[in-house]
Specification:
homodimer; Arc Repressor Mutant, subunit A; three-stranded antiparallel β-sheet; about 60% helix; elongated; DNA-binding; transcription (chains A, B); HTH_ArsR_DNA-bd_dom (chains A, B)
Chain lengths: ~120, ~120
DNA sequence: TGCGTATATAAGCATATGCTTATATAATGA
DNA sequence: TCATTATATAAGCATATGCTTATATACGCA
């Protein structure tokens, strides 16, 4: 209703879109929406450095878009279903092609982390 | 199906989201989706400089997201319904609050351009 | 406790981005 | 044709962004 809220909505959406306007982060989101992944798996999948992936995840986490789940020495990331932007996220990710095959490739190489 | 197309889709979407990850451009898109606007109107609405608005419009046009419609000395911009990203654009804009009130404010100030 | 693995953070750097000012181009109307 | 208005483009600059390398922190296990 009020212009105040309208401004907020525009701010929120543009901030979220800016975050997802990076191919690596957008793909991470799609991937961890389908299957929670730990950092080292993402490093392998994206052929990126560990700090680079870690920094992307930090931005996504700071925005509340992903959540962590520590399992021993690994930290698994997944899409945060309680995010304020969840509707938007759902809509965006639903129109992207599945990235599960990337995880399956990992598995074939024996690089998939599986712990309890 | 193919990983090639999947990569393309991710590229396309992340590029589009990056463009709309700017509050000014996102708002311009919502605005000109509801009512075509010329540059000088946008300058007034956003309290921005003419070159700044012009440069934002250039980016949107280069990406095929908006189209031009010259009327005399003015160039009116509107959302391009034939954009490759039209579905995505429709989805995003539909969840944003109407910006028509900004045009109405212009009208009150007598700054609305109307040329039939 | 100490070592190896996983992850996060800090600092530095090159490039991208969005603004500014200045100028060019295009259209209107006297 | 000339002045005015609208718009686009170019160049320069400050800040943002995403990577790198180096280092810190956290956990598991011997």
């Amino acid at each position: 209703m009020s212009a105040i809220h309208e401004e907020e909505r525009l701010d929120q959406m543009s901030n979220t879109l800016k975050l997802l306007g990076d191919k690596t982060r957008l793909t991470i989101m799609k991937l961890v929406d389908e299957q929670e992944c730990c950092v080292c798996e993402l490093v392998e999948i994206f052929k990126a450095s560990q700090p680079s992936i870690s920094q992307h995840l930090r931005k996504l986490k700071d925005a509340g878009l992903v959540k962590e789940n520590r399992k021993g020495q690994w930290i698994f990331y997944s899409v945060n279903p309680d995010s304020k932007q969840n509707e938007l996220i759902r809509s965006l990710l639903s129109s992207l092609p599945s990235q599960v095959y990337k995880i399956e490739e990992l598995e074939k190489k024996g690089l998939r982390i599986s712990c309890g």
